[in-house]
Amino acid sequence: MKNSDIETNRGILVNRFLETNTKDIFAIGDCAEQREAIGNRRPIEAVWYTGRMMGETLAQTICVNRIEYKPGHWFNSAKFFDIEYQTYGWVFGERGRPDYEKHFHWKHTDDTKCITIAYHKNSNHFLGINTFGIRMRHEIFDKWLTEKRDVNYVLEYLADANFDPEFYALHEKEIIAQFNQENGTSIESKKKSWKRIFTKT
Fold it and tell me: What is the pTM of this model?
């Protein structure tokens, strides 16, 4: 790279089509840096799934179907031994949290499981969730984020997001009870059949 004309910053600079400034030269993965960040995403993302999505996008372009890189809603999922950690959407820490973002935090009494739900304090629009020690379904949160659901809806149907309710303990009722107590709401746990989850409602 040092002796080439390819433009770099912290990474190799690319446009939305993952093209560098040099014709027919592309960059993907954690060496690629978007010239303009996509939404709240960082210009360089060192997570496995963005590399995969970039590869799929670039494959289309190489096969004469030039398309933009559109990573969709942010998510990350990891497992350390038997501890699950997941993020779907945006949940900012204290330092970078926007003024409009409100958090609801629930922690199990055994200190091994917790969730944090972020939502807009004025509109109740669901922004994202962090889970620790609880496994949730990516496709359901992705759907709710796309549909711009509010936090009440997410809590009502939180049981649908449980990854495997036959083998994992359920905590939805405890979570909803605490939210109701803290916010003066009367949300009740509901559940849709799997046939209806991915139909438009």
Answer: 0.85
